[in-house]
Write a structure and sequence with these properties.
Layout (H helix, E strand, L loop, with lengths): L4 H13 L8 E2 L5 E2 L7 H7 L16 E5 L10 H6 L5 E5 L3 E4 L4 E2 L4 E4 L5 E4 L3 E4 L2 E11 L7 E6 L3 E11 L4 E5 L4 E6 L2 E7 L1 E3 L11 H4 L3 E5 L2 E7 L3 E3 L2 E5 L2 E3 L7 E3 L3 E5 L2 E4 L41 H11 L8 E5 L2 E4 L27 H10 L14
Parallel strand pairs: 3-4, 4-7, 5-8, 6-9, 7-10, 8-10, 9-11, 10-12, 11-13, 12-14, 12-15, 13-16, 14-17, 15-18, 16-19, 17-20, 18-21, 19-22, 20-23, 21-24, 23-25, 24-26
Antiparallel strand pairs: 1-2
Length: 400
């Protein structure tokens, strides 16, 4: 049945003038209205159809109320902070217009929530999102820019969070990291995200003890898929991964200043169909220095000439020295290297391969169907165009 948008809006205006408290419906597209995020609602079904990877079970706020963010203030009525704080059940959060939100502190994301910026240009400044001990979270179509002002992260998935899907975000300039998945968190997919203008980009698990394996039993449960992401003008950790099970496919790494990827400490990683592109002679676009939590003023411009030969660190290289220093006390027969299955990756311009398969029989095959593209310059162009806070290409039907 066709909906007369003008009449609907007139109705809600009269309701508001009458002083009646209501939960307003959200318009996904002209003529489309859903008061609840049911599976039959087009903007819900359209997004959920794109899930894949280890985070494919995430449903976010499906079945819950639809809430519209109407204010770009940090807090108060109509704000994103209020929408998250009052989510007592499943909640699908959308935005009423383009907006830039300067945050005064990190936003906490509870269970069963979708933050959906589709249809508008929504940017968070200075702080990002903390997903702590939360299950079933989807975040899509936002830009988060730290402006190198706070020692925080754009997205921090921690404390045994699970079933998380991070999709079509533009993440940049955080003094700590752009993305963490750590502390027993698992079943996470990161797709079509643009990571750029940052130093230590992504950490998949985190060592916090002299005993490198102190939290091995907890963190080995991590399962993370990273696909069709664009790492551009970064320094390192694209990603750095330890302990868990990881699947990285069809990502584009371009113009890193120190190194590309890193795997260590018995991580189990399938690394396939990724594209590495770098030049040994190019201008450095880093700031004068990156602030660090250690108080060190870091700049890596001097490493650019050698960076193309470091598409990755040697297997285990990021933790080898610390491992050897403490092996007699803590290692208990463990390995500082990762188990790797490396295949079908493409190296462009001056980029050189580093990663090689190591005990690939210890790397589990993905337990899901996934859309895989042969790595080509054409795929690189598509990732440049569609990764980030932008509408992506048409959903694929090919399944590997």
């Amino acid at each position: 049945m066709a909906i007369n948008v003008r009449n609907v809006m007139r109705f809600w205006l009269l309701v508001c003038l009458a002083g009646v408290a209501v939960s307003r419906p959200v318009f996904a597209h002209a003529g489309e209205m859903c008061e609840r995020a049911s599976a039959a609602c087009p903007f819900v079904a359209g997004l959920l159809a794109q899930r894949e990877g280890y985070g494919r079970a995430a449903t976010g706020g499906e079945g819950g109320e639809v809430v519209s963010v109407t204010s770009s203030a940090d807090a108060g009525p109509g704000t994103l902070r209020e929408a998250l704080a009052h989510a007592s059940g499943p909640r699908w959060i959308r935005f009423s217009s383009d907006m830039t939100i300067t945050l005064l502190s990190q936003l906490r994301v509870p269970d069963n929530v979708t933050i959906d910026g589709r249809g508008h240009r929504v940017t968070l400044l200075d702080y990002g999102l903390g997903i702590y001990g939360s299950n079933n979270v989807i975040v899509t179509h936002l830009s988060i820019d730290g402006r190198l002002r706070t020692f925080s992260q754009a997205i921090n998935v921690a404390n045994r969070s699970s079933n998380v899907w991070i999709d079509h975000l533009d993440l940049s300039r955080f003094a700590d990291r752009l993305l963490n998945v750590k502390n027993g968190s698992t079943d996470v997919t990161v797709s079509w995200v643009k990571f750029h203008d940052d130093d230590k980009v992504m950490l998949l698990n985190n060592i916090t003890s002299k005993d490198l394996f102190a939290n091995y039993d907890r963190d080995k449960s991590a399962r993370v898929t990273v696909h069709h992401c664009y790492f551009f003008n970064t320094v390192q950790r694209n990603p750095r991964a330890q302990f868990g099970t990881f699947h990285l496919f069809n990502n584009l790494l371009e113009n890193w200043d120190f190194y590309g990827m890193s795997f260590s400490l018995q991580a189990r990683a399938l690394v396939e169909g990724n594209i590495f592109s770098n030049k040994s002679e190019r201008d450095c676009v880093e700031p004068t220095f990156f602030p660090t939590v250690e108080g060190v003023k870091a700049n890596y411009c001097k490493n650019i000439a050698d960076a193309p030969a470091r598409t990755a660190l040697p297997n285990g290289g990021s933790d080898q020295k610390n491992f050897e220093r403490t092996a007699q006390l803590y290692a208990d027969g463990r390995d500082y290297r990762a188990y790797l299955s490396v295949k079908d990756n493409l190296y462009l311009l001056d980029a050189k391969p580093v990663l090689q398969s190591y005990l690939p029989e210890n790397v589990p095959a993905p337990p899901y169907c996934y859309t895989y593209d042969p790595p080509t310059p054409r795929l690189a162009d598509e990732i440049r165009q569609f990764a980030g806070n932008t509408d992506g290409p048409a959903p694929r039907t090919v399944c590997r």
